[in-house]
Amino acid sequence: MSATEVLQSGAGCTSQQLFDCRDAYIRVLEEMAADDPRVCAVANDSVSSAKLKGFRAKFPDRFVNVGIAEQNMVGVGAGLANGGMIPYVCAAACFLTARAMEQVKVDLAYSKSNVKLCGMSPGMAYGQLGSTHHSIEDLAWTRVLPDLAVVVPADPLETAAAMRYSRLHEGPMYLRISRMPVPRVHGDGYEFKLGKAVLLRQGSDVTLMATGVLVSRALQAAFALAARGISARVLNVSTIKPLDEEAILDAARATRGIVTAEEAFARGGLGGAVAELLVQKHPVPMRILGVPDSFPPTGSAEFLMEHLGLSAAGIENAALDLLKDKR
Predict the structure, then answer these.
(1) N or C: which end of the chain has fewer CB within 10 A?
(2) 117 φ, ψ to 5°?
(3) Strand duo 39-43 + 63-65: pairing
(4) Distances in Å between the alpha carbon of 312 and those of 11, 195, 205, 215, 271?
(5) What angle do CA 261, 262, 267 make, to 5 degrees?
(6) In this structure, are residues 15 and 8 in contact, taking their beta carbons and an 8 Å threshold?
(7) Which of the residues in the chain have pLDDT under 70?
(8) What are the C-alpha distances in Å from 292 to residues 91, 261, 272?
(9) What's the pLDDT at 3?
(10) Nearest one of 211, 219, 261, 262 to 237, comparing CA atoms
(11) Domains and CATH numbers, the chain
(12) What is the pLDDT of residue 48?
């Protein structure tokens, strides 16, 4: 069964339907702008991919398009925040982080500016455009900056909830908004809490920790492991910073090891954050799934996920390998 067929089977998810999380992000952004005159949007000419056409039409006086000038875009966002606005700076994640990292560091994190960065189409969503358009370094880059919250929603419900939370959060945030279709993993009434991982499935043998589009795949892996008689706990670690240390340490104490999975470089992101915590407070065997230390080839996003083992089967095999070494 292909990864697409597995996803569409809905195993372990609350819905078989697949969603583009950008639809949830823009719906809530427009709702917040209608309720709060401080909410505005800043873009880098990526109006279509950031789904801002409707926002521009509804709130033309609160929409700024700086053109292909990402460094200026972040600076404009900081200036708007200094003037009392709540700017949402929306751009492809690969350019928002790579081209404007100094401004993110100085104008936002260091200055504690109340700016919300919306990194659109992250990971390998632009797979066929090649490595220049992959955003697989962004988690490593952003999570090391003091005072910058880093959030990677797993489904449309969490995307909407994180967006609503962001308006009330004082300080800079980086929200990684996926375009790769995902099923719902949360039920109605889900409430996002910054710095809190969500326990999606109990388990006593191994813990699967994932973020973003890998969460649904981790759930499917847990169901496959259950068929083998292996009990897998599943944690959605949507907040990379601040990290939910309590939930991670509890999982390390309660199970025989941890597998992390993310659509980013395996070094420096979720896996790195979890390993840094555990090596200091409760070392356990780990397997860290992500993009290896090389640039991925060009191809569709689905092909790349399969090629790199970022699939339900890849997570299942990593868990089996970990448990084999523990016997």
Answers:
(1) C
(2) -90, 125
(3) parallel
(4) 11, 25, 17, 9, 17
(5) 95
(6) no
(7) 1-15, 325-327
(8) 25, 12, 13
(9) 35
(10) 211
(11) 3-15+194-326 (3.40.50.920), 21-177 (3.40.50.970)
(12) 87
Q: How far apart are CA 38 and CA 167, in angstroms?
A: 10
SS (H, E, C) the chain: CCHHHHHHHCCCCCCCCCECHHHHHHHHHHHHHHHCCCEEEEECCCCCCCCCHHHHHHCHHHEEECCCCHHHHHHHHHHHHHCCCEEEEEEEHHHHHHCCHHHHHHHHHHCCCCCEEEEECCECCCHHHCHHHCECCHHHHHHCCCCCEEECCCCHHHHHHHHHHHHHCCCCEEEEECCCCECCCCCCCCCCCCCCCEEEECCCCEEEEECCCHHHHHHHHHHHHHHCCCCEEEEECCEEECCCHHHHHHHHHHCCCEEEEEEEECCCCHHHHHHHHHHHHCCCCEEEEEECCCCCCCCCHHHHHHHCCCCHHHHHHHHHHHHHHHC
The count of other CB atoms within 10 Å of the CB of residue 3 is: 18
Q: Apex CA 64: angle with CA 58 and CA 70, to 5°?
A: 140
By the 8 A CB rule, do 229 and 256 touch?
no
Peptide bond into 146 cis (omega under 30): no
- For 300-325, the pLDDT digits (tens) are 999 999 999 999 999 999 999 999 96
CB atoms within 10 A of CB 179: 21
**Would the CA dihedral through 66, 93, 248, 198 be positive or negative?**
positive
**What pLDDT does 224 receive?**
97
According to the model, what pLDDT value does residue 7 have?
39
Backbone angles phi, psi at 218, to 5 degrees: -65, -40
Would you state the pLDDT for residue 132?
87
What is the pLDDT, as a whole number, of residue 11? 52
